[in-house]
Write a structure and sequence with these properties.
- This protein is α+β, with helices and mostly antiparallel strands.
- The protein has 1 helix and 8 strands; from the N terminus they run αββββββββ.
- The strands form 2 sheets. The chain has a 4-stranded antiparallel sheet with strand order 1-8-6-3.
- The N and C termini lie far apart (about 35 Å).
Length: about 100
């Protein structure tokens, strides 16, 4: 489990660094579960906004948040879909 945590932290750091160089950023789900809600394509988002909510063992939980301001470019999952932790769920075009 420690290696998985290290991998997830490394991936998050790489995504943060990639955001400085790329306009489109893919966000993974940080929790596994059934998708309850997801921000629709074309929606403007601000840093910290919840992009994806999943129904986990603890109930509905935010599973992806915007790292910076932007617009949702593409949604990769639909409500009702089961996702695993680390699955890419949404692409945001950052400003």
């Amino acid at each position: 489990m420690k290696w998985l945590r290290t991998l997830m932290v490394s991936a998050a750091l790489c995504m943060s660094a990639a955001a400085a160089f790329a306009a489109d950023v893919s966000y993974p789900s940080v929790l596994g579960g059934t998708v309850v809600s997801i921000t629709p394509a074309g929606t403007a988002v601000k840093q910290g906004d919840v992009l994806l909510t999943v129904d986990s063992l603890a109930g509905p939980m935010p599973a992806a948040r915007a790292a910076s301001d932007g617009v949702v470019k593409q949604v990769l999952v639909a409500p009702g879909t089961a996702v695993k932790r680390g699955t890419a769920v949404i692409i945001v075009e950052e400003k």
